[in-house]
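Subgroup meeting minutes
Present: P.N., E.W., G.H.
Scribe: E.W.

1. P.N. recapped why we're keeping a running log of single-chain structure predictions: easier to compare across weeks, and new members can see raw inputs and outputs side by side.
2. G.H. added today's entry (260 aa).
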Amino acid sequence: MPALKIAVQLSSLRMPMRKALVAAARMGVQGVEIDARGELRPQELSQTGMRELKRMLEDHNLRVSAVSFRTRRGYDVADEIDRRVAATKTAMKFAADLHAAVVVNQVGNVPAESTGRNWNQLVDSLTEISKYGMHVGALLAAQTGTESGADLARLLDALPEGGIGADLDPGNLILNGFSPLEAVEALGARILHVHARDGVRDLARGRGLEVPLGRGSADFPALLGTLEDHQYRGFFTIAREDSEHPAAEIAAAVEYLTNL
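Output recorded in log:
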C-alpha cells in the first residue's frame, strides 16, 4: 500500500492561520484543508492576498488537500439557491487556483425516494455545480454522515458521471448511526477525499460522540484496505471538532495514521 497522504484541517487547530501553518508543517503532514467561509473568504481575497497565501504554503512545503465550504443550507432548499450555487462556484475556482481538486460541503438532505420537488432541486443544483467543477478542475465532494453511503451513492448516480464525488467522514457516519465500511463499498471510486475522524455511539443516550482518532468505532486498518481496493489515492485530512487540546490530539492522530 502506498504511503498515506496526510493533511490537517487548519480550523481544527484553533490558531491564527500563520501559526496553524507552522504547526501543521512541524507535524510532518503533506497538506492542509482551508476553510473558505471562516479562515479566508475567496470573494474578499485580492490577487496580492492569493500570492501571499501561495507563498506561505510553499514556504512550509504544504499542499491544499481540500477547501471546505459549508453552506448554512443544502442544495435541496430552493430559497436563495442561485446565490448558494454561485458562492459554491467561487469556492471551487478558489480551490482550483490553489491546485486543490476538492471542495467539501454537506449537500443537503437526500430524499428517501428519487422523486419529488426536493429531489429535483438537489439534482438540478448539483448538476450545474458538477459541470462547473469539471470546467475549472475542482470537484464538489458531498460529505457523508447525514445519510447512508448507499443513499448518497443513489444521488451521485443521478448526476453527470465524474462531476460530483464523496467526502468520506467515518466519524460523522458513526455519529449518525451508519457504517463507514458499508459507505466505502457503496461509494467506491467516487470517494474524492477522506476526513480522518472517529466516533462512538452512546447507546444509552441514543447519540454519537466524537473521540480522538483510533479510540472510536472506526476500523481504520480495514477502511484503508477497502479504500486501497478502490485505488483511493487522495488525502486523509485529520479534523477534530470537539477537543480541549486540539493541537496535541491532532499531532497524535498524525502519528497514528503514519504508523498504520
